[in-house]
Structure formats: structure tokens, C-alpha cells
UniProtKB/TrEMBL annotation:
It is found in: Cell membrane; Membrane. It is a single-pass membrane protein. Coiled coil: none annotated. This is serine-type D-Ala-D-Ala carboxypeptidase.
Length: 727
């Protein structure tokens, strides 16, 4: 019997079908997903693909404020409405021009900054076909053959634009040009101020409403520097650049390396410049995500900005204003008396001799403009102008004599007219002794301002002996030696003040030995008013040359409660050097200075004797040819340059415990027949009076505040006791 085999059933087709179904399903999902990506989200992903870079820009913040030592605001920031423009990368001229035309219809823009070159460039932009006609066919042919560059071709068009062409530009065109000019002066992705002066509320509102149709334009709040005192310390406070100026050309690389933008406002001079790093603040950093066209897709604040740190000056503005008023009054009186046309300025520097803090830095200059007399701020002249100072430097001469061993404290010398061979019969003498001979001490020489005592001291330093009508055999090293010792007091060297562009004065050229004698009485080299203040402070404090400074503290931005922020840095007193004199030698000169102002024969006793604050000091008068701003006029007219007298004064008070030192310098104060010789003493006395008057007033106010505080505390305690008793 034949067996039959049973066929075995396979499951392969089913498994294959399942696999194909799963693959089909997966492909369907993939296609569906691709459809969503391609159709629904295609534009978004396309933008993401086209993103090229993250652009980080800095947003400006207000500068730090400046206060005086009593926390009175001197320089502040004033918020103001502003309209800005941020140019995207690759923005075309046509796009910017179109936006400028729209914006011009919404705001008023001044056109005073528009130059002739701006007008010509704009004319070409507006009149492309007419501009092409300025070039001949032959010139176009040369351009195609690269014989004329595109730059040369454009310059030809510029040169051939006529006045008649420019007159076709209307007032509306010029306003558009002024706005377009601001657009193009900015840098890509960096906000550029279009208008921040006198932006009206209406302009601000209407521009804000139309931002959607003004690509790149924005409305924001800007700031401007505000000065509490219009004609006080302006020359010392300095200036900042405008947003149009931006970084100074000569310092662009320096600032760019320190994370500045080209259109940032920076300090251009003096305090604003010197403390730029402190005042600038920390700018807001914003990261912009852009596409290939430069359009901003998203913005993120990377770092919040912070206003610059504040400066607290050493200046006492109440004293500063009072001293300036004194200068203006006395300078005005002197000018009104007539007979002294060359007098045009007065300087006063007041400082703490123990710390170097500048308490007042006052200077005024008399000018006539358009027939009207003005008193302009010239505080800066205290450190940028120098003059022959006369006898005020005799304290340094005596101490130099001590330090070199030429004389010793208490030594007497004979005051007599000095006559040398070859002098043509002319003699050098003291003002109080024109003919006789008298033995005087060092302190008497200072009190009476003896020229001869100082000259004989210089002769001894130079190894010379006086022989009537004999030659002056003095070492050529005399003047360099004396200058070196004078430098220990700050005379003829930089004082170290925290301001730029300080002048050190001019050194005369030693053409004959006798000039060393003139140097000893302050009639040769020139010094600044600030140098005189440092010099007299060195004598006042016992021989320490203190570095003068005008900034007292650096503080974090002012707190919300209106109080000053925490101290970042306190400028501490700095001793630059101690003079080589002994304490006893310094005290000897201090005694002579006290006698100048308090003894019956002192040259300044008429003005200072009996002052309750017991001052000490030294007067000075320097004779010489006028060397001021009008000197060239005399030379041009062929006229003789007149002789003038500078009058000066240095001092400190109280003499036994100095707390304030000062210098007064009045250049070209008088000529013969027009005496203003006492103006230095009058100004000095009034300035010292005001210092101690303010001190007394503040002490009284402080005392009253303490009494009031005690009364309030006592009342609170009584009220609390009454409440307790009632309970």
C-alpha cells in the first residue's frame, strides 16, 4: 500500500506581509512628517538654515555723576527722549533713503550739520541719470577699459555738480538728507542717535506709533550731561564727545580695544577724560540673532547695564563759589579804575596742606566780546599757565641756603645795594634799603622781603664772595643746584595732580652769572598757581610735599534712597617727598612767614594783622616785560612791549596748626601810574575769611542739628513713658 506525504503549511507570506505593512507605515509617518516640515514649518526652518551669526552689540548707559565734598551735585545726567536708527547688515542706500523720507514727515530735523559734500552726494543719489550725464562718453569708455577707476569717476561727478544743481534740493530734501546722514554715520547693528535734542512729546508718540513702517527706527530714552553751575569749574570738569562725534579719531584704536563702540560718548578733557574708565559705566550687552539678510530674528540681553561710578570731588563748592565772587568783584573794581588795561585774570588755589585735597580752584578771565564785558571761568589756568612769581619763593631760597649749608638758621647778613663790575653802575637792592647797609636776620629778611639777603644766599651756594664793583665769580652749577632744591617744594616740576596737561613752567636760559641772583628772588623761572600752593603747603606742614588731588572718592552709583553708594576707592594722601631740611630749619621759615602777616613791619600786616585765625605767608611782586596774550599786538604795531608787575601771595592758617593753604596770582596787575599792587592781599584776606566763616557756620549748624536730635529723642522718650503710664 502506497503512503502519501502530507504537505507542510508555511507562515512566510504572513510574516512578509506584516513586515511590508510596518515598513509602509513607517514610510507613511516619515512622509507625513516631512510634509509638515516642508509645508507647515518650512519657512521657520528655512530662516533657521539661513542664520549666519550671533551679533553682540552694546547699548549706552548714563555716565557717573560728580559731587563736591559736601555731596552737592556738580555734574548730573538729564534724561531726554531720543529717536534712533539701527542699520541692519547689507542695508541698501535705497532702503535707508526710503525710511529717511518717511521719518522726515514725522519729525523736524535741523540741517545745520549738513555739509556741501553731503549735499553733492545726496544730489547724485537723487539724480542718478543727471549725474551720469556729468561724465562724457569718452570718459565712460575709459572707465570700461579700466583706465579710470570707479572712485575717480565718482569724484568727477562730485566736482562737476554746480551751485545751480544744489539749489534744486528743497528744504524737505535737506531735512531728509540730515536724517539720512545720521543713518549712514552709524555702524551695522549699532543704534545711532538720529535726534535727541528737543524731541517733542508729539514727535516721540507719532514715531512710536509708526515703527512698523520704519525699519530700523526706534524710540528710546537717552541722556545728556547737566552742569549745576554754568560758569564754575567748567574748564576743569571737561567735556564729553557727542554721539555724532563718537570716539576721538586719534584714540579710536585705544578705545575699541576696551570694548567701546565707535559712536560712544567719551570724556574729551580734564576730569571727564582723566576718570573716563570710572565714569563710563557698564554697558548693556545685547545678542541679536540675524539671518543672511541682516534681519534681526531675536534679541537676548546677555548682560544688564549699569550707570558709571560717581566721583566725589575734594572741592567745596560753597567755598569755590565764594572765592570766584571775590575774584570777580576785585577784578571788576580794578578794571573800572582804568589805567591797567593788561590786567585780565586772577587765580586762587586753596588746599589742605596735610592731605593735598584741593578745596577751591578758582580762576576768572576778563574778556570783552561784542562790546560786552564778561568774566569767564579760567580755573584751568591754575595748572596750565605759569608766571614769574616774585618774592613769594623766598622761603624756598632760605631753605635751600640751609640745606646746602650756605647759611644757617638765625644767621645775619648785611643788606646793602650790590654793585658788580660791568653792570653799568646799576645796583641790585632791597625795596626798603636803597642806599645804606644794615645787618638783618633770615626771619627779618622774609618779613621785609629782602632781595639782597636772598642774592647773597645764592652767591654763597655758588661759592662767590661779594666785592663792591668787583666781578661776580659764581659757579655755573648755582642755578641747576637751586632748581633741584626748589623742585623738592614742587616749584618747576609736576605737582602730580590728577588732571592731564599740567604745565611745569618755563626755565630761563642762563646767559650770565647774575641771573642766578634774579632766580633767588623769583624773577627768572615761571611757575603755576598750583605749584605755589603745593610749595607753601610743604612749608606749612613741616616739609612734606603732598600730592594735590581733586577727586576724594569713587563710589558706586547712588542708591535708591538718595544717599551715595558704597565707596569703591578712597584717594588717600600721598607724600611725594620730604625736603632735606630739618624740622628746626622749617620752623625758622615758618616764623618768618608768620611775621610777614602778623608783625608790624611785615609786608602783608596791613591786611592780615589781627586776623582771628593767625595766618602766615609771603607776598610777591615780579617785574618784567608783558608776556600775555596781547604781546603780539604791540610787536605788530612796532610798539614797545610795556613793563608790568605780577603780584602774588601765598599763605596758610592757623600758623601753628595749618588746615588750609593758598596761593593768589594776579598777572600784569599794574603799570607805573596805575597801581593795583594790593589786589593780591585783598583777594587773599577775603578768601581766608570766607573759609573760616563757612567753617564756623557749619559748626553751628552741626551743633543745632545735635540739639534738635536730642530734643526729638527726649520727646520720644517722654511719649513712650506716657504711653506706658496709661497702660
Amino acid at each position: 500500500m502506497k503512503k502519501t506525504k502530507r504537505k507542510k503549511k508555511t507562515h512566510v507570506p504572513f510574516r512578509m506581509n506584516m513586515m511590508f505593512f510596518v515598513v509602509f507605515l513607517l514610510f507613511s509617518i516619515l512622509i507625513f512628517r516631512l510634509g509638515i516640515v516642508q509645508i507647515v514649518q518650512g519657512e521657520d526652518y528655512q530662516r533657521k538654515i539661513e542664520r549666519t551669526e550671533d551679533v553682540t552689540v552694546n547699548a549706552s548707559v548714563p555716565r557717573g555723576k560728580i559731587f563736591d565734598r559736601n555731596v552737592q551735585v556738580v555734574v548730573d545726567n538729564v534724561p531726554q527722549n531720543a529717536i534712533t536708527y539701527t542699520r541692519k547688515k547689507g542695508a541698501s542706500q535705497e532702503e535707508m533713503l526710503k525710511t529717511a523720507e518717511k521719518l522726515a514727515k514725522l519729525i523736524d530735523k535741523e540741517t545745520d550739520q549738513v555739509t556741501e559734500r553731503d549735499k553733492k552726494d545726496f544730489w547724485i543719489l537723487k539724480n542718478e541719470e543727471k549725474a551720469k550725464e556729468k561724465i562724457t562718453d569718452k570718459e565712460w569708455q575709459k572707465a570700461q577699459e579700466n583706465e579710470i577707476s570707479s572712485k575717480e569717476l565718482y569724484q568727477m561727478q562730485i566736482d562737476r555738480i554746480t551751485e545751480k544743481d544744489l539749489k534744486t534740493l528743497t528744504e524737505e530734501d535737506l531735512e531728509v538728507l540730515a536724517i539720512y546722514r545720521e543713518f549712514t554715520s552709524g555702524y551695522a547693528m549699532t543704534p545711532q542717535v538720529v535726534k535727541n535734542k528737543n524731541v517733542t512729546e508729539e514727535e516721540y508718540a507719532i514715531v512710536s506709533e509708526n515703527l512698523a513702517s520704519l525699519p530700523g527706527v526706534n524710540t528710546t530714552t537717552d541722556w545728556d550731561r547737566s552742569y549745576a553751575y554754568d560758569n564754575t569749574l567748567k574748564t576743569v570738569l571737561g567735556n564729553i564727545s557727542s554721539s555724532r562725534e563718537g570716539l576721538p579719531k586719534e584714540m579710536v584704536d585705544f578705545y575699541l580695544s576696551r570694548d567701546y563702540s565707535r559712536n560712544d560718548r567719551v570724556g574729551k578733557s580734564y576730569i571727564e577724560y582723566q576718570y573716563e574708565e570710572v565714569l563710563r559705566g557698564q554697558k548693556t550687552k545685547v545678542k541679536n540673532l540675524t539671518d543672511k539678510s541682516g534681519n534681526v530674528l531675536d534679541s537676548q540681553v546677555v548682560r544688564e547695564g549699569q550707570r558709571g561710578n560717581d566721583l566725589v570731588l575734594t572741592i567745596d563748592m560753597d567755598l569755590q563759589l565764594a572765592v570766584e565772587k571775590i575774584i570777580e568783584e576785585e577784578l571788576g573794581k580794578a578794571k573800572s579804575r582804568g589805567g591797567h588795561p593788561l590786567l585780565d585774570r586772577i587765580f586762587v588755589t586753596m588746599m589742605d596742606p596735610n592731605t593735598g585735597e584741593i578745596l577751591a580752584l578758582a580762576g576768572k578771565q576778563y574778556e570783552v566780546k561784542n562790546g560786552k564785558a564778561e568774566m569767564n571761568d579760567f580755573a584751568l589756568g591754575n595748572l596750565t599757565t605759569s608766571y614769574t612769581m616774585g618774592s613769594v619763593v623766598k622761603g624756598a631760597t632760605v631753605l635751600t641756603g640751609y640745606m646746602t649749608g650756605a647759611i644757617h638758621p638765625g644767621e645775619s647778613l648785611v643788606d646793602q645795594p650790590l654793585k658788580f663790575a660791568g653792570s653799568g653802575g646799576k645796583s641790585k637792592s632791597s625795596w626798603f634799603n636803597r642806599g645804606g647797609a644794615m645787618s638783618i636776620s633770615d626771619t627779618y629778611a622774609l618779613m621785609r622781603s629782602s632781595n639782597v639777603y636772598m642774592m647773597k644766599t645764592a652767591m654763597r651756594i655758588g661759592g662767590a664772595k661779594y666785592r663792591p664793583n668787583g666781578p661776580l665769580k659764581i659757579s655755573p652749577d648755582t642755578l641747576p643746584t637751586m632748581r633741584r632744591y626748589f623742585g623738592q617744594f614742587g616749584l618747576g616740576v609736576r605737582t602730580g595732580i590728577d588732571l592731564p596737561n599740567e604745565q611745569i613752567g618755563f626755565q630761563g636760559e642762563l646767559t650770565q652769572p647774575g641771573l642766578a641772583l634774579d632766580f633767588s628772588i623769583g624773577q627768572f623761572d615761571t611757575y603755576t598757581p598750583l605749584q605755589l600752593a603745593q610749595y607753601v603747603s610743604t612749608i606749612a606742614n613741616g616739609g612734606y610735599r603732598m600730592e594735590p588731588h581733586i577727586v576724594k572718592e569713587i563710589r558706586q552709583p547712588i542708591a535708591e534712597n538718595g544717599k551715595l553708594g558704597p565707596v569703591v576707592e578712597e584717594i588717600k594722601p600721598e607724600v611725594l617727598n620730604r625736603i632735606d631740611a630739618t624740622p628746626a630749619q622749617v620752623k625758622r621759615v615758618q616764623q618768618g612767614f608768620r611775621m610777614v602777616m602778623q608783625s608790624s613791619q611785615g609786608t602783608a600786616q596791613k591786611y592780615f594783622r589781627g586776623a582771628p585765625y593767625n595766618p602766615a605767608g609771603k607776598t610777591g611782586t615780579a617785574e618784567g616785560l608783558y608776556d600775555g596774550p596781547q604781546r603780539e599786538k604791540y610787536i605788530e604795531r612796532g610798539q614797545e612791549v610795556p613793563m608790568t608787575w605780577n603780584v602774588t601771595l601765598v599763605g596758610y592758617a592757623p600758623h601753628d596748626n595749618p588746615e588750609v593753604a593758598f596761593s593768589v596770582v594776579v598777572p600784569w596787575a599794574y603799570q607805573r601810574g596805575a597801581n593795583s599792587a594790593s589786589i593780591n592781599n585783598i583777594v587773599g584776606r577775603k578768601a581766608l575769611d570766607k573759609y573760616f566763616e563757612l567753617k564756623a557756620e557749619r559748626a553751628q549748624e552741626e551743633k543745632s542739628d545735635v540739639v534738635i536730635e536730642k530734643d526729638i529723642r527726649a520727646k520720644d522718650e517722654a511719649d513712650n513713658k506716657e504711653d506706658t503710664d496709661n497702660q
